[in-house]
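Journal club prep — side note

Before the paper discussion, L.F. wants everyone to see what a predicted structure for a comparable chain looks like in C-alpha cell form. Sequence:
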Amino acid sequence: MRTRSGTRAAADNHPRPAPTRPSPLDFPYYQVHGDLNAAHQDAQNLDQIFLGLEKHVSVRHLEALNITLLGEIPLEKLIPEGYLPPTTWLQDPSLAAAPSSIAPDSAEPSKEARKPGHEEFYQRAKELLYDNDECFDSLPGGPRSRGPPPVKLSQTNNFYQNLLSMAESWDTSKDNYTINEDGKEMYTGRRYVAGHEMPPHYRENTVNAFVELCIWPFVCNLQSPRSSVNRKLQFRKRYLPVQGVTSSVCRNSTERQKAKGGILQGPLVGVHCRNTTTFRSATDGIGEGKEELMDLLSEVSAALLVAQKRAREGKVEEKPWENKYWALAERRHLGELGGGRQDAETNTRARREIEAMESGVEPMEDVEMEKKRDGSNSNDAKRRRIQGPKQAYLTTKPPESQWEPKMEYRSIGKEPAAGADNIYLISSLNHHVSIVNIRIDDRYLEYITHGSPKEDFDPSTEEWWILEVKRSKWFDLFDPQDRGEAMRGIWGVMQWMTREMG
C-alpha cells in the first residue's frame, strides 16, 4: 500500500500535464431468458459446451446452467427478515429512545460467535459517513495546514488510505483542465491515471479493508487465496480458473489451541473483485457483450467455488496422485538416459552429473556456480543452482493440494435439512460493491462437480436444476451514504450467517 506524501498531495493544486481522460463508468447488463428446451439439451453436454469458454462465450452458457437473474433487489428482501440493521443504527445510539436489536438470538453472545450490537456498528459506520476530503486530509502525510486533523479516524484509517489510492484513478470531482501559454493542456485535480489504468490490487485492498471493517466484530477474518490452485472451480474432471480474485470471510476457530495456530473455519462469504471496465464493443447491444457474459459467469463461478468449499465439511480430500509412481516423494530408478527428445549434449552432461553424484564429487559446473554465488557480482550471487536430470527427477513433488492449509471447511449458517445452501458474495467492479445472493441446491452442486446424480433428467420438471441470482444495487465507495448502506448489508449477512442454529 502506498502512503500519499505531503509533496504529492500538495501537487494536486499545481498544474501538470493532463492524465488520460477519465474512464466512463459502465456496468454489465444481463438478459437471461431461461430457455428450458435449450437447457434440457445443453445440460447433458456441459463438458463440451464449456470447452474454449473464453473464445466463444455466449448466452448458451448461461442457459446451460439454467441461470435466472434478479437485479436491484432491496436489502430488506435480499437478507432474511430480522437480521438487517435498521437505518436508525446509522445514528448515535445514545440519542435513541430505547436500545434496539436485530434478531431475538442477538441479545446474548453464543459460544460459536459474538453478536455485536448497535454500539459497535455505529463506531464504524459514523466514520464511513465522513466527507472524503476531510478523511483524506486526516491521513498521515495529508495536505492539511497546521492544526488538528479535520476528523479523527480510529476504525477506518486503512480503508481511507486505500480509497485514496483508488481516488487518484477514479475521482473526477476536482478535475480541471486549462491551456498554458505554450498551448499545452494542463490539469489540476486528484487523478494521475484513468480508472482502466489503475493497478488491480488497489481495488482489492480497498474492498478487503471495507469488508474487514464489517466482519471483525463477528470474530472473523478475510483469507486471500494462497495460490492460483485454490481459485479453481472443480467442473467434472477439470479445474477451471475463476476470473478475478476471490477471497473468503472465515471465522476464527472456537478452540483456543487451534485459534492460536491460525486455524480458520468456513468460508462464510465470498469476496470477488474484477478489473473489467469495458463490457461491450461498439457493435454489441446491451446485454450482448462478451465481457458482460463473462462477468456473470465469473460471479456464478465464484459463488460455486464458495459452495464447493463449504460442502467439504466432514470430508477427506481425494488426491488423484496418491500412490502414483510419478508423485512419490522418493524416487530410486532413473531409467535409461538418451534417445527420444534428448540430444547428445544433454545426455553427456546428465551422465557426468550422475557419475559425480555417485562418487561424491560435485560437477565442475556446479562448483563454478558456487564460486560465482560467493563472488562480488550480485547478479551471479542470486542465480539459482542448476539441477541435473537426476536431481530434478528425485525432487519432483506431487501437484499442489486443492484444499487450503489451516482451514476447517464448514458450512456455517446452512440449515442442515434444507438441502440447499444460500451463498452470499460481495462483488466489486469499478469503485463499487454489490451484495449477491445465490441459492444453490445440493444436487445442483453435485451435478456441476461430479456429473451426477443422473444425466438424463428433464430441467423443466426438476426444481433443483435452477440457479437464481439476486443482486443488490451497486454501492459507490466514494459516496458516504452508499458506504453506510453497504455496511448495513454486509452486517446483516454476517448476522444471518453466524446466527445460532437450533
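L.F.'s comment for the group: DSSP finds 17 helices and 14 strands in the chain. Keep this in mind when we get to the figures.
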